[in-house]
Amino acid sequence: KMEVDNASPTGQSAVVRDKTAPFLIRTFVKIGSFHRLSLFEDATLPTTDEQQIFTWKDATLSEVLTTLRETAPHVPEYRHPLARFAFRTVYADSGNKGRFSQKELGLVYSRDILGEPGTLTSIAPRLLEEADNENREQTHREKEERTLDELRFVPGDFLLLA
Fold it and tell me: Which of 56, 118, 124, 131 has a CA that sits 20 to 30 A from residue 20's CA?
């Protein structure tokens, strides 16, 4: 059973994460381009490029990327400071006789997660923030970012990352 807190400031029902189980996302990462849709239609999933993560429907793409970074710390491309990550979903399309379709979900830049870098004369702003991030004010970009639920991503869909 999913517990929902109806007092969300955005008008969206917020997931109570400590009372709701996360769901599995099978994520397929390819540097430079997306995997071909035909790989999913032919059931020849590119499992050598697969990362399995667990998250909630109220997670944002930035949060998904942060989770991927934590589950695969050995992949240097996930941490490149100038990287751009494009997200796409592959799903069984009920309007197309169950054939697979794909949809762009959005872009996340490394700098959006890492924050602005410091310089020789100033410390990076993120290092000056309080250690207790729970009480910090959300940035405008964080407030604007859409959740997986708002992007209509559902458990069972595949997530592609390029």
Answer: 131
